């Protein structure tokens, strides 16, 4: 199909976002960052003083924030109740709290519905979309035309996330990453997992450019 829908899942630090944006831009597809949506709802909850140790409190306000995602891969945007939160959702505070919020079934149901409607309009418009996340191939879009699961060694993932940092910082980053992935992989409701029909790409020894080329080739085979 021309309006191809591509699901790209995997843990943090595998180059998922960079790859997804570049592939979408190169092939003229729209792009949806589902992690940004979970970060946005987490940001709203932090801002509104919700007790994030209490899943019942989180569930009670799961539908309160209006989250809008801009789907241009060259300039993706995210707003909560009209406020641009692209910067604030990347803070250490939101990053450390997002797994607790995204584990709550009411939050997932609400965000999943949003994601399905965004992907459905991209398909209806004939544009097609790259959707990146943790459960896109398994749960959100089980009928996606192509499913990719990106992996990389914990060392490679931590090194990419920490960039120029050295020694203790890499170690701390690695520990935080491993903790978040463990939480995302072990939650009851649609955990991070590879779909049975996903193509696994181990990016440990690949450059970003090589990963992009690999995924572009796989998408072109589906068009
Ligand atoms: O991709 P990113 O690191 O921005 O995702 C932030 C968090 O959002 C993840 O750690 C996970 O808890 C949650 N998430 C999710 N399902 C998705 C995408 C992200 O639970 N499809």
Automatic annotation (TrEMBL):
Reaction equations catalysed: CMP + ATP = CDP + ADP; dCMP + ATP = dCDP + ADP
ATP-binding in keyword set: yes
EC number(s) given by UniProt: 2.7.4.25
Main localization, broad class: cytoplasm
The keyword Nucleotide-binding is annotated on this UniProt entry: yes
Entries under CDD domains matching the protein: CMPK (cd02020)
GO MF entry, a single one: kinase activity
Positions bound to ATP: 10-18
Residues forming coiled coils: none
The Cytidylate kinase domain, residue ranges: 6-220
Keyword terms of this UniProt record: ATP-binding, Cytoplasm, Kinase, Nucleotide-binding, Transferase
Entry's localization field: Cytoplasm
PANTHER family registered for this protein in UniProt: CYTIDYLATE KINASE, CYTIDYLATE KINASE/PANTOATE-BETA-ALANINE LIGASE
Family: Belongs to the cytidylate kinase family. Type 1 subfamily.
Protein name: Cytidylate kinase
Species the sequence originates in: Streptomyces kunmingensis
Record lineage: Bacteria, Bacillati, Actinomycetota, Actinomycetes, Kitasatosporales
Gene name for this UniProt entry: cmk
């Amino acid at each position: 199909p021309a309006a191809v829908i591509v699901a790209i899942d995997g843990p943090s630090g595998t180059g998922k976002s960079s790859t997804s944006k570049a592939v979408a831009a190169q092939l003229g597809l729209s792009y949806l960052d589902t992690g940004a949506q979970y970060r946005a709802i987490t940001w709203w909850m932090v801002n509104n003083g919700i007790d994030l140790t209490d899943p019942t409190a989180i569930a009670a306000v799961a539908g309160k924030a209006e989250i809008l995602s801009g789907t241009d891969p060259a300039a993706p945007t995210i707003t909560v109740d009209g406020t641009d939160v692209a910067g604030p959702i990347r803070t250490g505070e939101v990053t450390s709290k997002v797994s607790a919020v995204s584990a709550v079934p009411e939050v997932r149901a609400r965000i999943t519905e949003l994601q399905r409607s965004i992907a459905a309009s991209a398909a209806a418009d004939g544009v097609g979309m790259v959707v990146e996340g943790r459960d896109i191939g398994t749960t959100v879009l089980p009928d996606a035309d192509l499913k990719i699961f990106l992996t990389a060694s914990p060392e490679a993932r931590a090194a990419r996330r920490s960039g120029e940092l050295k020694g203790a910082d890499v170690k701390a980053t690695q520990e935080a990453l491993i903790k978040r992935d463990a939480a995302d992989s072990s939650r009851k409701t649609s955990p991070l997992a590879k779909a049975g029909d996903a193509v696994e790409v181990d990016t440990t020894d690949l450059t970003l450019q090589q990963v992009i080329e690999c995924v572009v080739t796989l998408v072109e085979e589906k068009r």
